[in-house]
Structure formats: C-alpha cells, structure tokens
Amino acid sequence: MDCEILVSGVPLTVKSVFAVIMHQSVTDRLSARAEAFVRTSGMRVNTPGRRTRTTVVLGRVLGILMLVCFSTGLYSHVLQNPPEWFPLSPQPAQLYRFTQGTHVLAGLALVPVLLGKLWSVFPRLFVWPPVTGVLSFLERLAVAVLVSTALLEVALGVMNIAQWYIFPFSFRRVHFALAWILIGSIALHVAIKLPAIVSFWRRPSVDSHTTTDAPASGDTSSHAEAVSRRGALIAVGTAAGLIVATTAGQTFAPLRSIAFLAPRRPYTGPQSLPVNRTAAEAGVLDSARSPSWRLTITGATKSIELSREDLLSMNQTTVELPIACVEGWSQQATWRGVRLKDLLELVDERNVDVRLESLQVRGAFATTTMQAAYVADPTTLAALFLGDEPLDIDHGYPLRVIAPGRPGVLQTKWLSRIEVIR
C-alpha cells in the first residue's frame, strides 16, 4: 500500500511524487540538451563575416531594391488595371519600357542580396531561449512573415520571367498582394531593428569594434574579420552584378551579346522581334487568316465593319514605338497603320475610352480597355505593318494595336473589335 502525504490538503502517494520528480528530471535533461545543441550550433555557424555590420549593409541594399521593385511594380499594376479615377498619360513613350526593365533587373539582383542577408543573420536562429516573452515572440513572427514572403515573391517573379506557370493561381493577383505584405513586413522589421540599424549604419573606425559586433571566442583577428566581411559583401555584389549584366541585354541592346540569362533577346523571332504568345498558342491560326475577317468598330450611334483592304486604303502613319513586356524585355520597332483616333472618327467618336477585343480564344487579355488619352495620341495605331512587311501572324496579323507607354500584354494582337465605352 502506498504511503500518503498531504500537500495543501491534497493527498499524494509516494508513487505520484516520484513520477513528478522523474518528469521534472526528464524535462530538465531535455531542456539542457536542447540548449547545448542550439548554443553549439550557433557557435559553429557564427563565422567572422556574419556580423551586424554585414547585415546592415546588405539590408540597406535589400531595402533599396525592394522599394524600387515595389514602386515600379505598382506602376505596372496600375497600367494593367487602371482605376477610373486615376489619369494616365501615354507619354513619355519609353517610360514603361524603362520602369519594367528596372523592375525585373532589380528583382533578379534581389536573389543574391536576399540570400546574402539570410546568410548573415543565420546565427540569430540559434539563440537560447528562442522566445523570451510576448515581444520576442512577435518579433520572431514578424521575421518569419518577412522572410517567407520575400522568398515567395522573388521565386514567383523569376518563374514569371521564365513563363513557368506551374502554380494554380493568378500570378498578377498573388504577386500584387504579396508585395503589400512584404512592404508592411519590412516597415515593421525596420521599426523593431532601428536601434541596431542606427548603431551600425556607418563603417566603424579601425579601433572602435564594439562588444556587440566583436568576433566570438576562437574567431580570427579583427583584420581577418574585416576581410571576411568584405569578402562576403564582394561575393554578393559580384553575383548581383553578373545577373544584371547577363540579363539587361533583353532590353538594353548593347548588352544583348552577353544576355545569357535573358529569356528573350532583342532581334530574335519573326521579323526580328521576340514573341511571347504565338498565334498557335492563342488559337487564331485559322480565324486570323480567314478572308472573312473584319474589324468591327462600334460607337454610341453608329457601327461599321472594315476589311484589311479597307484599312490599307486609308491614310497610313509610321511610328517608332517599343514593345515592352512585363517579363522585362523590350525592343524598339517601326510600325505602320491607321491612327486609332481616325478609326473612331468613322463612327463619330472622339475623346472616348474603348474596349479592344482579340480573336484569341486562349490566354488572358483577350479583351482590354484603353483610356481616352491613349486613343487620342497620334502615335497610337491599328498597325498593319512591322517595318516594311505585313505583320507576321505571330505579331498580330491581320491587325494589332500599338500605343505608347503601354505594357505589351495590352498591345492587343489579332484585333477584331473596337467598342466605345463611356
């Protein structure tokens, strides 16, 4: 029979007391082993280059690149989904080419910088105890959101550049939503880490190494640490530079000979112009070549149909405009066709928004809208020719839209209908 003792009036047997003691002993041993493992692992990964100064330097670059990506990406999103209240201008004609090229190059440069930043803060994972209170828990949670969102955002962006859509959701919507989460996470992280950022913003003097940034026991000398830290930064900078240099040629023609990582190269494709979506992929091979094709123009009170021959008989305008795609590639080209505003005057319409419809049966952007400012611009064409040749079918034969300052996805190919909307 077990002996009983009273603790605060509650009977406890010797067996139950022994069980409690053993449980505490096991818990203490497991906790001690976990602490030893974490601390040992932290010492092993705490290499000389992984210092607060390294993290702050990489963080500055990372912050600049992310702000560039966010602002240029927001501009691209507004162009593709223009709010009714937001005025857009077709000029300067090269603006979208510049902003989207910058967006993609900055996003690609983020890859080594982000990995370098994660490498520099990796030892922070091995702190004990991992959470010391509510604020500590919230800080770790904010970092988890920031890191996971950043990695996912960059990964999706790279996959979009390569047009590798293995995910079952809309890239544009998810990418846009993640961008806001990422910016919010960055703002919160900067607020939390502001004291450390201020302390290590500038390069410390040679003899002013602080204890918080000094090498741990067993590390190399301060001079060796500086070399290691500098080496880490040089490695990240070199990787980012190589990625940019071997990709920029897809929009900056002088570098096209070394554009090894670019999914599109200038002057490559039908009529020496790259193609994103072919006529076969859009399902228009038969309808685009059909002799019965007509362009329908519908106004508020009048509607007409025009054959390709009718369009060829009208006054032709030649313009120099770029194709600039969301994947970051772009190329200047010569286009010839009928001004869009001249076509709308045939149905007695001026200064109106229009809806553009394509023959394509597969893929997004079969129907797009164009604001009145673009319609009225004298360089906005319903193009029939690319250079001196009729449009290749992969470039939109029999008719396509070309307008200044618009993303390539909105330069509607295989145009079949123009409808006035108010």
From TrEMBL:
Organism: Microbacterium halimionae
Residues in Oxidoreductase molybdopterin-binding domain copies: 290-421
Protein name from the UniProt record: DMSO/TMAO reductase YedYZ molybdopterin-dependent catalytic subunit
Record's keyword terms, sorted: Membrane, Transmembrane, Transmembrane helix
Record-linked Pfam families: Oxidored_molyb
Alphabetized InterPro entries for the sequence: Mopterin_OxRdtase_euk, OxRdtase_Mopterin-bd_dom, OxRdtase_Mopterin-bd_sf
GO molecular function: oxidoreductase activity
Record-linked SUPFAM superfamilies: Oxidoreductase molybdopterin-binding domain
Top-level division of the source organism's lineage: Bacteria
Residue spans crossing the bilayer: 57-78, 98-120, 141-166, 178-201
